[in-house]
Amino acid sequence: MSNPTKKQSFMGGAAILASAVVIVKLIGALYKVPLGNILTDAAFADFNTAYDIYSLLIIISTGGLPVALSKMVSEASSLGRGNHVHKVFQLALVAFCVLGTISFLIMAVFPAQLADLMNNSRSYWSILALAPAVFFICPMSALRGYFQGHSLMTPTAVSQIIEAICKLAVGLVLASVLTSREVDESLAAAGAILGVSVGCLLGMVYMLFCYHGHRAHLRPSHDTPGDTREILATLAKLAIPITLGSSIIAATNILDTSILMDRLQDALGCTEDAARNLKGVYDKTLTLYNLPSSFMVPLTASVIPAVSAARAVKNYRQGAQISETTLRTTALLALPAGRETGGRSYGLTPAHMAYRIGPGPKLLGIRLPQALRACYHQEACNGFNYRRAADETMDLCLRKLFTRLGEQSYRRSEEIMALLGRLLC
Q1: Which residues of 194-216 are buried (b: 16+ CB within 10 A; e: fewer)?
Q2: pLDDT on residue 364
């Protein structure tokens, strides 16, 4: 960094992080699509099962603390309290390392238990290979929160790109080598996911380098830092609600994976290997639909320190303008993405064209018609209930909404019936 202490504007910081997200997602596509074609569907399911556990532990360990840290650093920095900023960061870094160590031990010591909890015992090696990443990402998240609090988004953006490149290079090479040597497919998945751990390690090293460069250019400060207990209490007060809110999606993914694997084996009578194949196909189709939400993260990372700094100096008008700009930008991104995603729900998606979908769907055999009949019945009932609700309400807007939902449910039931007819012919 040529000038490591020069702050960036809110939109400038958001633009840098958004550009990084675009680059990371492009690298991710170069990683995930070939990886999905190198690994079998079952191995891809092992990969994503471990990643679901990793995601939940990461959110619990780092979900709210970086945001809380960036807010406190931004407020103290805007008031010229350099010593207080340093103390806040040190305390937060210790907290991050403690949480990272606990999360690492959970994945490293209990991989078999976690795999059994997910009803996928073959994901053992992938969970073990991903354990170091949980530790490395915790101090890196503390450093990201520190720089975001100073409105310096470039280190975060570059570290994300470093992570993605390492994941691409190491993961694809190991997956290709292990697959070509015909080792067990679960070990090939572990090799692919080891790239994430290597990427987190190198990203953390880069952030430490940036931190030392930034500290060397800071002006001496003579303020008295705040009380340790008060700082920790404030961090917890800010971080816990954000962590609880952020963990809902990750916890839902954990439950979804566990329930899906359980139902495929118990309800449909699939073997564990057959269930893994089906889960791998399911995971491949989710890749496209998780893309739009990733563009919201840069706005969140930029808006909180920017608004906090404005409020710290009692510039409430600027804080309101930043918030309004964020909402407009979010709407401009979310509405077209939702329309496009919904419009492609029943057609040929890029996920189908990119991945070679294996024989997983054929493994259901005779039980597939039973599942389709149940889906048809559910959608038809939904359509009937929506139509009835539309007839009973006096609100014109609700009537229009219920009517449209009913039409969508009936259309889905017709598509399911057509699919069932083709299957039985």
Answers
A1: bbbbbbbbbbbebbeebbeebee
A2: 41
